[in-house]
Each structure stands twice: as C-alpha cells, then as structure tokens.
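Dear Dr. H.,

I hope your travels went smoothly. While you were away I took the liberty of generating a structure for the chain from your last submission, since the lab meeting agenda had it listed for discussion. I wanted you to have the full record in hand beforehand rather than looking at slides cold. The sequence, exactly as received, is reproduced here:
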Amino acid sequence: DLYTFLITFAAADPSGDEAALEKAEEYYALAVEATDGNQAGPHVALATAVCVPRQDRDRFEELLNTALAVDVDQAPQTRLANVLAIQEAERLLANVDQYFWR
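The corresponding predicted structure, in token form, is as follows:
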C-alpha cells in the first residue's frame, strides 16, 4: 500500500525533525481513511516509524492492538498483507521492552 510506504518514508527523513514525524501522521490518517481501517499495515508502520522515535509506548501498544483487531477476511484482496502485518504486530508487542527506555 502506497500510504503505508509513505508513513515509513516520511518518518525516515534524515533531518530527524518533528515535521517529518507529523508528515508520517498525515499519511497514516490518509491510509486509515482510504482503507476504512481494514488494513493492519498502517498501524504497524506508524507504531514503528513514529512511536518508537518519540518513545510513546502507550500509543505504540494501542496501534499494534488496533492492527491485531483487523479482520483479515474483511478484504480478501489484502488478506496476506494483513496476516503478515498482524504477525509483525504480535512480534513487536512480545518484544516491546526492547524499543522503549522506561
């Protein structure tokens, strides 16, 4: 999905400033709107690309739990992508302490 890619791409701006993370947030909103929330990938992308640099553990966990709640059978054409994103969300949640300082 293009928006999911753009979330990660925008956040990877080498300047490292907050504007890059805000742009990633904008792409996230567009991704959720375009897919009616039926894709897990944007939630995982924002969690890793934005919440980790901001050290926002609560939102990280919230986004990953939102990804886990996606019904993979809702949109058959994106089932594989959703299954893979959900597996990644599970892996990230199982290792959450590796990404945050508190």
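Two observations you may find useful: Residues 39 and 78 are 7 Å apart (CA to CA). The two ends are 33 Å apart (CA to CA).

With kind regards,
E. W.
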